[in-house]
Structures are given as C-alpha cells and as structure tokens.
Amino acid sequence: MIWTILLLLNGILFFYFLSNRTRSKREPPLDKGVIPWLGHALNFGKDAAKFLTRMKQKHGDIFTVRVAGRYVTILLDPNSYDSVLHDTISLDFSSYAQVLMDRIFNLRLPNYKPDTEKAIMKRHFQGESLLCMNNVMENHLQTLLTLESKALNQSDWKEDGLFHFCYSLMFRAGYLTLFGGEQNNNSADAANVYTEYHRFDSLLMKMARNTLKSGEKQTAGMVKQKLWDLLAQAGLRQDSSLWMQSYRRHLQAEGADEETQRKAMLLQLWATQGNVGPAAFWLLAFLLTHAEAMRAVRKEFRNVTVPGTNTLNPQEQTPVFDSALEETLRLTAAPFITREVLQDKTLRMADGQEYDLRKGDRVCLFPFISPQMDPEIHLEPETFKYDRFLNADGTVKKDFFKGGRRLKYYTMPWGAGTNVCVGKPFAIQSIRQFVFLVLLHLDIELHDPEAQVPEADVSRYGFGMLQPNKELQIRYKRRGHPIFL
Length: 485
Ligand code: HEM
Description:
EC number: 4.2.1.152, 5.3.99.4
CATH architecture of the largest domain: Orthogonal Bundle
Strand content: 5-15%
Number of helices: 17
Bound molecules: protoporphyrin IX containing FE
Order of helices and strands: HEHHEEHEHHHEHHHHHHHHEEEEHEEHEE
GO molecular function, one term: iron ion binding
Oligomer: single chain
Number of domains: 2
Binding site for heme: 421
Keywords: Endoplasmic reticulum, Fatty acid biosynthesis, Fatty acid metabolism, Heme, Iron, Isomerase, Lipid biosynthesis, Lipid metabolism, Lyase, Membrane, Metal-binding, Prostaglandin biosynthesis, Prostaglandin metabolism, Transmembrane, Transmembrane helix
Binding site for substrate: 103, 109, 275, 362
Number of strands: 13
Distance between the termini: 81 Å
Strand order of the largest sheet: 1-2-3-9-6-4
Radius of gyration: 24 Å
C-alpha cells in the first residue's frame, strides 16, 4: 500500500515538474494549455490550422506550445524562416523524421544516412535521368488513361469520384515508373498496390500521432504486411527505375536485412506517391469549377501541342498552367517543416528581435498560415485565382510583400532550404502531363454543374498535401478525336 502511494506521489511530482516549465524573458511566449502533459495536443490534432491561427492572434508570429509532453516553438513569419532553414548545426531534420519512420513504417534503419540517400535520389531526379523518367511516366499515364476510357463508347459517360480518379491513376503510373511491375501481373499489379496503399493512407494520420484504436492497429498491421509483401521485388527486378535499384543496393550495403528493406520500400512509396495524386485532384477540381481558368489552361495547351501529334512538348513553357498549379498548391499544400533543437540556440527574427530556444524542444514552421494564406501577402487568400502568379504581361510573378519587405518565400509547398523536395521537377511534370492528357482525351465535367470544390479534411494539416473531406463526383467520356476545345 505504502509503495502504491509513493509511486502515485512520484507520478504526480513528475507531471508537476513537466508541466511547471516557466518562460524566461528571452524565450518566445509560452502557452502550455490547461491539460497537464497533453497541453494543446487535442486541438492541434483536430485542426492545426485553426488552432495555430488562434495562437498567432494571441501571441504573434512566434510562440511555444506544449503538445503531448513536448514543447514546440511555432514560427509564422516567412521573413524569418531562413534563420531556421539555414541552421543545420543546432537544428536537425532527421531525428524527427526517424521518429515518424518508426511510428508509421515500423522502420529502423541500421545505419541511417539521410545525406547519402538524398544524394542517390538527386542523381536520378535531375538531368538526363529525369527526362528519361518523365518519358516513362508519360507512357504509363497514356496507357492507363486509354485503358480507363477504351471500355467506353464515345456516347457513354462514366461516373467516378474525382479524387479516386486522379489519385488512382497518378499512383499507378508513378508506381509503375519508379517501382516497376506489370500492369497485368496478378500478384503485384499496380491496382492492387493502390488499393492497399489507400487503406494505409486512411490510417496514416492516426499512426503518425499514435492514436490508433485497437481494431485500427490490427488493420494497420495487416495492411502494412500486405504492402511489404507486394513491394518485396521493388528495386530487385529489371523494370524498377534505376533510382530504386541504386537505393536497394545502398540498403544492402548498409546491412539492412530483407524485412527492413521492404519496410523502406513502403516509406519510399509514401514519399514519392502520397502527394502527387491529391495535388492533381485539387488542380482539376479548381479547373472544373472555374470556367475562365479552364479556358486559359486549355488555350495554352493547344499552343504547346507538338504539331501533328498529341503530345505536350516538355521544353515548352506553360506559365498559365504553372500559375494555376502554384495557386492550387498555395491553397492545399500544408506541410509542417519541423526541426529538433540539438543545442540551445538564439533565433534572430527579421525585425531584429531575438529569442532563445531550448535544447530538446522542436521548432516548426507552418507556411500554410503564412505566407500561403496570409491576407497581407495574398489578396483574398481563400479564393482560387489561376493567374495570381502571373504578371500582366504573362510572365511569372515573383514579387510579393509583407511588412513592406519583398518576400523570398511567398508560397512554400515544396519546403525550402537543404530539405527542399527532391522530387519537385518530376512531380510538376507528372501533374502537367496528366492534366494535359485528361483534357486532351476526355470530355470531363462535374456530375452536378453547381458543385463546389470540397473542403479539406482538417485532420491532415502538417503532412504535405491536404485531401478533400468528401468526393467531388464527375462524369467523363472518351473524345472521338483528341483535341483541345
Ligand atoms: C505535389 C507533390 C509533392 C509535394 C507537395 C512535396 C512536398 C515536399 C515537402 C514540403 C518536403 C520537405 C519536408 C521538410 O522540409 O520537412 C519534401 C521533401 C521530400 N520530397 Fe517531396 N513533395 C512532392 C512530391 C515528391 C515526389 C514525386 C518525390 C520523389 C519522386 C518527392 C521526394 C521527396 C524527398 C526525397 C524529400 C526529402 C528531402 C530531404 O530529405 O531533404 N516528393 N517534399
């Protein structure tokens, strides 16, 4: 009995000290929330954008919140982002990444070398290798889209949800391009991988937050096991991309066993396929609900089609499309950029103010709130304006201001600094190619002409591209002659 009381007292004291952190004068405003240890975890997880906007109104551009026992300093001034992005000595990208790798993918690499992995990827996602990969991706998109529409007569409309349509097509084409595999191979075909991946993706946020219920834990375990099995040959067979093959060799050289290698394949599947499909969905959703934007994109595509063919010339500039995509990503890309504080550090803001950060805390930028949805930077930030990133003369607009200063970061869907997205050029070309092919080959329209772009699923803030909270129903049919109307 006495031991139980002592243990209980110990626990209470432990909680008290954890909760009892006080702010020193040189530290950012501290908001611990009222619930011991948990702090603001519930509101943060429910709708991070809403919660952090409220905190910004209360505390300003920098503040520290307690979230499930951790102290996280949130920085929301884009003019000050470089002080975090450029510090790779006191701030570290990979330790938080490793926490998520373990929680979501059960992956612990024996000899994790993020810089080597990135160097391998960079080598394959630029220059000649990138051109080659873009070609393979285009062929897969073309084949899958043809398969999708071949079954239809020219007069038959097929109904589908736009999210499912975009995600499944982009995913399967991306999977075949990077991981390899025959479309008609029953055991590991791309459609099968997509079905399992979709189930995995629906539990992803709960895995990341450690909030799976017991039944969900079982489902997550089963789905992961299936995906590991389906990915067993990725990087080992000849039709995998050269990047995948190099990555496999790297894992083997670092001593990762077969099981760990499969787990790493699932991580790479998520990193390479998790954002592109949702981005293509939002872009088509905005185009289908904004007739002027759709007309402008179609007109531009008409002008860059290689004469006598139905192909998009990859060298051609498409500023209107690029602006529409940039605008889409401004509204729907919402990653946290998180760094672990390895040693006490002083953070200098753009206005000269200095704040101390404590070793063991985390720092988190959330560009979705600022710059992306900041009304001081983007007029009517909630509204989709396809030409927001175009000057009056049709050139790319890069001049945006906050507090009278020209901004380096006026939208940040790809992250920035040393950890900027390695796959950006491949992702952009894939989305461009997909939208080009869909608009060329299909008559596609909203099932309900009055339908609006759905709201985002607010539980997904912080993990890259948002996803819609419900489907947007469409119908499509094959065009007799591929043409831009
Ligand atoms: C619309 C599509 C995509 C979006 C919005 C996106 C976004 C991002 C963001 C925001 C980061 C930085 C994370 C941070 O700093 O904490 C990132 C990193 C990364 N992305 Fe993407 N990404 C996309 C597609 C892709 C594709 C297609 C690939 C590969 C083929 C890829 C590979 C990577 C890799 C390897 C990193 C980690 C870089 C590092 O370790 O430094 N991404 N991405």
